[in-house]
Amino acid sequence: MTRYQDNPDQETLSNDCLRKARRNRVRLKHLTLARRRSPQRTPLEMMLRRLASSSVRPAIGWIAAMWIVLVALDGITGPHYSFNSLYLVLLCMTTWCFGRIAGLASGTLAIAATLYLNGFGDGLSAQDSFVPAFAAAWNASMRGVGVVFIILLVGAFRRTFDQEQANALVDPLTGLGNRRSFERDCKRQELAAQRDRLILLCGVIDLDDFKAVNDQHGHAAGDDVLRVVAQALSTAVRPYDVTARIGGDEFAFCLTVPDDAAGQQKAGRIHEMVMAAMEASEWAATCSLGAATGIDAKQALRVADRVMYGAKSSRKSSWLFQYQSSPNL
């Protein structure tokens, strides 16, 4: 269940754990202050985020219904009433939800419908019964240019939004997920475990004497160590398992296993692969790991964190595992 490699001084280990606890409290305080200072979202921002996260099938239904109602209303009221603004709003929503191709298709249909219903006038007043051919072609082309510009603008904004959303869930240094993405993906793992009748294996990895690496070799060396650990952790698990950097030198993982024995074996294997990668690097650094099984990710991670500190307090470069049915430490 336990693997030991070193025999450091007990007082030094206790001091390391106390410093780690203080850093965690300071980090939690900073996160709380940042959340309080974050600006409130406008109703438009909340609507766009809700549309971006909505399911495709329901969105197709209600957006198609809105198009039908708008075209029907435009046909009933005639050319004396302009609905251009509503067309633009609905065109933006279509492009935002389904992309540029859907926006171009709906924009083309909207232009054709408005030209058929209201003629080729300027669209700001009742249409003339006769419009010169050049003026008709000009007005139609201007509508097309405006629609294409709106579609490209909204499409570019949506791609930027999606990229920012993805970056907000990734640790830029290691490429792993951050704490926010880890909590979100752990819920997905819980559902997968319930569906497949498996249990969760959650673990926490903490680097030993990481501050000494930064002090002796510089922060660039510390960054290299973090990247080595991240790469080794990603290699040690399956592509669909959840990994993240959840703190300065803390990493976490969450995956599904059939039973406690498999979880213990997997935890030992992960520690072995991470340690091998760190020993192969040019920096003398080690890590401690705590792991636990369970059916609730938050509870299993909480136990794993406590087990990890138990491993560090006993001997660094070690790992500890707690069974699902084991008593609390």
What is the element layout, followed by pairings?
Blueprint: H1 10-37, H2 43-52, H3 56-77, H4 84-98, H5 100-118, H6 133-167, H7 179-196, E1 199-208, H8 210-217, H9 219-236, E2 242-245, E3 250-257, H10 260-280, E4 286-294, H11 297-314, E5 319-322
Parallel strand pairs: 4-5
Antiparallel strand pairs: 1-3, 1-4, 2-3
Query: What's the end-to-end separation, in Å?
Result: 14 Å
Strand content: 5-15%
Task: Give the radius of gyration.
Answer: 29 Å
List unreliable stretches of 5+ residues.
1-13, 33-38, 123-128
What is the global morphology?
elongated
* CATH homology group of the largest domain: Reverse transcriptase/Diguanylate cyclase domain
Characterization of the model:
- The protein is an alpha+beta fold.
- The chain has 2 domains: 10-38 and 175-322, Alpha-Beta Plaits (2-Layer Sandwich); 43-167, no CATH class.
- The chain is built from 11 helices and 5 strands; from the N terminus they run αααααααβααββαβαβ.
- It has a 5-stranded mixed beta sheet, sandwiched between helices.
- A hairpin with a 4-residue loop joins strand 2 and strand 3 (250-257).
- The longest helix is centred in the middle third of the chain and has 35 residues, at 133-167.
- The protein starts with 9 loop residues before the first helix and ends in a 7-residue tail after the last strand.
- Mean pLDDT is 84; it is low at 1-13, 33-38 and 123-128.
